[in-house]
Amino acid sequence: MKLIVNPSQNLTGRVTLPGDKSISHRALLLGAMADGVTTARNWLNAGVTARMVDCVRALGVAVDIEPTGPGRATLTVHGRGLAGFQPPAEPLFCGGSATTMRFLMGLLATQPFTAVVDGHAGLRRRPMERIAQPLRQMGATIETTDGHAPLTITGARLAGIEYEMPVASAQLQTALLLAALGAEGPVTLRQPGPARDHTLRMLRGMGVELTDAAGVITFNPVGFRLQPLDFTVPGDMSAAAFLLVTALTTPGSTIELAGVNTNFTRTGLLDMLQAMGGTIELNGAREQAGEPVADLRVQAGPLAGVEVCGEVVVRMIDEFPVFTVAALHAAGQTLVRDAAELRLKESDRIAVVVEEFGKLGAAITAHPDGFEISGPQQLHGGQVRSHRDHRLAMSLAVAGLSATEPVVIDDADELHESFPGFVETLQTLGADIRWQG
Ligand code: S3P
Predict the structure, then answer these.
(1) R_g over Cα of the chain
(2) Which of 45, 176, 203, 437 is the most buried (most CB within 10 A)?
(3) Which of the residue ranges 206-210, 322-326, 426-430 would you say has the lowest mean pLDDT?
(4) Residue 221 — very low, low, confident or very high, per pLDDT cuts 50/70/90?
């Protein structure tokens, strides 16, 4: 479907965000591995998590989803313990969700059967060997297709592992922790930098004793049973990101975002926008589901260019498409480095950002590990496409709100993968945005 975005201004209001995507995935899969019933409210009910639900059900787990609003539901998972899964009758299809595929690799590595895992063309181009290789080292049999999906996984009684992770990836860390839950010896993972730590927090909440100091995670999993959870998922910082940049770059706007997850491993964009001079207040800091949460208040205003490199890159790894909109508004130079991982996401996010924002008049210079923008640059209207990347679709919509003419985004319904209420939320704030066809 096409999304039509017209120039808008004075967006105001207070919104609550759908539940965090990463925490929602973990609640489902760890809930399935627990002994008892897990309940998660404000759970993200979107395309990416629907794929995980299908796969978990195909492994014999009962999952109930009671919708509570656009993109939200109360999730109930009837956990089967670490050893209660059934062999799936068909290949497990992960759609475009790398999180689903990589987390399943960790779980399936511990199960005494063979399963095939696959996804659509976009997911088949993403690297899986980085997960397969350490799981093989622990004793699982994993065949990839030249390092990619489709994958054939035969689980085993796994050995412990001491492993130096080549990338600071929370998906890799989580896949290894899931496998480690069924391992027969101690596990030590060394991470080269901070990656999102939701799995560690959730496992602690489920009764697992582990240590995490200076990037070294250790635990001795023998005989663990996971206690089920009952909690409310905090609002997704990666969904809030679109509204943060909308508020900063759409003239006359003030937007309040209630109950957003402010976990340090997720606030890279917030930190960079503040460093650019963005007016963002954090109020009512509190804890929810073992995660820090706050209400954000954001106001439109001038921004200045900034250099983004080093550890902050992983803390905002999903936010670069929408960060581009802020950088185009900023006076002076913005340089992104150390971000080659962007080329391995739902799309090659360096190439598609240059291509699609370029159609709206943006001049962006690509580098192998980032990009460079000299601003401010006023975008004009035009027709662009999502490349089946939900975050690119929403970022182009945010750009359209402050362009001089309408922006038409083809295949924008891809945004339902992670933020089904995105368009309605912007409409509530006063934006001139609508679906066509
Ligand atoms: C995620 C980790 C990140 C992120 C993805 C979700 C997670 O990927 O890009 O959207 O839930 O663990 P990497 O671990 O590959 O960096």
Answers:
(1) 21
(2) 176
(3) 206-210
(4) confident
Residue 239 has phi, psi (to 5 degrees) of -85, -40
The residue whose CB lies within 8 Å of the most ligand 1 atoms, and thus the one to mutate among 99, 104, 316, 419, is 99
| Residue bearing tokens 């001038």 | 302
Indicate if ligand 1 lies below 6 Å from the C-beta of 318. Answer: yes
Over 80: is that where the pLDDT of 24 sits?
yes
Q: Give the model confidence (pLDDT) of 83-133 as tens digits.
A: 999 999 999 999 999 999 999 999 999 999 999 999 999 999 999 999 999
Alpha-carbon gap, residue 1 to 436, rounded angstroms: 7
Q: Is the CB–ligand 1 distance for residue 265 below 6 Å?
A: no
Q: In degrees rounded to 5, what are phi and psi of residue 122?
A: -60, -40
Pocket-testing residue among 20, 21, 22, 346, ligand 1, by greatest number of atoms within 8 A of Cβ: 22
Asked if residue 138 has pLDDT above 90, the reply is yes
CA–CA separation, 144 and 127 (whole Å)? 10
Instruction: For tokens 């023998």, name the residue.
Output: 222
Work out the average pLDDT over 307-324.
98
Atom of ligand 1 nearest to the CA of 196: 12
For the four alpha carbons of 403, 407, 409 and 414, in that order, the dihedral sign comes to: positive
Q: What pTM does this model have?
A: 0.98
Q: Is 248 exposed, middle or buried (0-12, 13-18, 19+ CB in 10 A)?
A: buried
Buried b / exposed e over 87-126, threshold 16 CB at 10 Å, is: ebeebbbbbbbbbbbbbbbbbbbbbeeebbbbbeebbbeb
273 phi, psi to nearest 5 deg: -65, -40
Q: Under a CB-based contact definition with an 8 Å cutoff, are residues 373 and 328 in contact?
A: yes
Instruction: Give pLDDT tens digits for 6-15.
Output: 999 999 999 9
CA distance 431 to 414: 20
The answer to whether residues 258 and 14 touch, using CB atoms and an 8 Å cutoff, is yes
